[in-house]
């Protein structure tokens, strides 16, 4: 029954989306517990986190060798990010933009789209091309981490290309790995030195104890205690009671309690991480399976299912976040998320899916869908450039183009 398949499809989508949200949230909490900086968390988990549904569904489709679902999902998500999400944010409020957003991330997004189109011309995304995508994405992350963060002056697209083709990211990666290894070795040496010092101290104390008799020690401690009583004029019972309520005594108990709570809450976070990961895997599996089922049932290409049901379904959470951000006057964040998500979709997600299995490309994807994606990307860059803001009528143009394209592509299918 198609009704049951629709319910399974929607159930898989809910598991996929909610599992992805919980996975990203839990991962960021665990990363903070282990002292990972906010910048690194934002650069990796937050930027990639919005693309987790696309990643899970594309990998699942790649394992099932459903190339049409993969290409439709990637191209459709990129188009939906511009034509549906960015346009909605612009309709709700004028989106203020910055020059660096265009000349660095905007041009990198455009470069990734052009590179994808060129790789598609031979009707296949090979494993080598997928590896190039992933290499570009890793270089992009290191570029943001090492160049953009450390330099006060603006860093643009040309600087990224120089950074990539001079292989500077390899040196940056090596410089990041080496200090960590040295710190670990230093920590191990410090722990060994501490152990040695402890052993030496213990031996000295043992020799001292052997040299003094128990009677002398008792007499010594009793005399010191009596002197302390006389100076403070406090009874023994009060002193004993006070010793239990001194800060040092309470801190030990609090530390032990906090340590138990820390371990317990960390255990819960790991359990949530495993549960959310399972939800993503199960949800992606049923989501993709039913998408392929509907493609066969309706006798339409898998690419059309990928660009419509799969792409729009995985973009719904981002749409809700965009509407909320635009109402709170944070629409610029939504636009940055669109650009970052398109970069991650093309370079990371398609790269990972292509490594699993080479992706076959249809003429529909090349001559219609990818061409329209390039046009929308150019248009978004143009709108950002005009007055450094995306106006409401420009958002309306993007939305109308998106709706017209979806109607046209479904009719062609």
Topology:
Blueprint (H helix, E strand, L loop, with lengths): L1 H32 L4 H12 L2 H12 L3 H26 L2 E2 L2 H22 L3 E2 L1 H22 L8 H9 L2 H44 L2 H19 L3 H10 L1 H52 L3 H26 L3 H26 L2 E2 L2 H23 L3 E2 L1 H21 L1
Helix pairs in contact: 1-2, 1-11, 3-4, 3-11, 3-13, 4-12, 4-13, 4-14, 4-15, 5-13, 5-14, 6-8, 6-13, 11-12, 12-13, 14-15
Q: Quickly give the structural class.
A: mainly alpha
The count of helical stretches stands at 15
The domain count comes to 1
Level-1 CATH class name = Mainly Alpha
| Beta strand % | under 5%
Main pleated-sheet profile: 2 strands, antiparallel
| Order of neighbouring strands in the sheet with most strands | 1-4
Brief summary of the model shown:
86% of the residues lie in helices and 2% in strands.
């Amino acid at each position: 029954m198609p009704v049951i398949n629709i319910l399974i499809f929607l159930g898989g989508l809910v598991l996929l989306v909610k599992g992805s949200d919980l996975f990203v949230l839990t991962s960021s909490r665990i990363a903070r517990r282990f002292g990972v900086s906010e910048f690194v968390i934002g650069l990796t988990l937050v930027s990639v986190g919005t693309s987790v549904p696309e990643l899970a569904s594309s990998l699942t489709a790649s394992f099932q060798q459903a190339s049409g679902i993969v290409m439709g999902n990637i191209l459709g998500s990129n188009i939906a990010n511009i034509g549906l999400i960015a346009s909605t944010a612009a309709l709700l409020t004028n989106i203020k933009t910055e020059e660096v957003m265009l000349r660095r991330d905007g041009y990198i997004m455009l470069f990734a789209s052009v590179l994808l189109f060129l790789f598609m011309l031979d009707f296949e995304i090979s494993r080598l091309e997928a590896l190039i995508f992933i290499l570009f994405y890793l270089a992009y992350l290191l570029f943001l981490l090492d160049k953009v963060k450390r330099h006060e002056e603006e860093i643009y697209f040309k600087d990224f290309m120089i950074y990539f083709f001079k292989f500077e990211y390899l040196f940056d990666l090596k410089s990041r790995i080496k200090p960590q290894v040295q710190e670990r070795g230093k920590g191990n040496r410090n722990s060994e030195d501490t152990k040695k010092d402890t052993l030496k101290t213990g031996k000295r104390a043992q020799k001292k104890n052997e040299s003094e008799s128990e009677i002398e020690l008792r007499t010594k401690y009793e005399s010191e205690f009596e002197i302390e009583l006389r100076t403070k004029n406090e009874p023994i019972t009060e002193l004993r009671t006070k010793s239990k309520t001194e800060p040092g005594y309470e801190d030990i108990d609090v530390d032990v309690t906090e340590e138990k709570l820390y371990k317990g809450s960390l255990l819960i976070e790991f359990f949530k991480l495993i549960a959310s990961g399972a939800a993503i895997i199960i949800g992606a599996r049923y989501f993709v399976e039913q998408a392929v089922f509907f493609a066969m049932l309706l006798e339409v290409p898998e690419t059309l299912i990928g660009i419509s049901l799969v792409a729009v379904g995985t973009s719904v959470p981002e749409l809700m976040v965009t509407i909320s951000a635009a109402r709170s006057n944070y629409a610029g964040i939504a636009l940055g998320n669109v650009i970052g998500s398109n970069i991650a979709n093309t370079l990371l997600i398609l790269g990972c899916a292509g490594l699993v299995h080479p992706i076959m490309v249809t003429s529909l994807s090349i001559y219609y869908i990818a061409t329209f994606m390039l046009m929308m990307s150019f248009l978004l860059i143009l709108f950002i450039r005009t007055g450094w803001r995306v106006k409401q009528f420009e958002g309306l143009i993007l939305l109308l183009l998106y709706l017209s394209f979806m109607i046209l592509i479904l009719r062609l299918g």
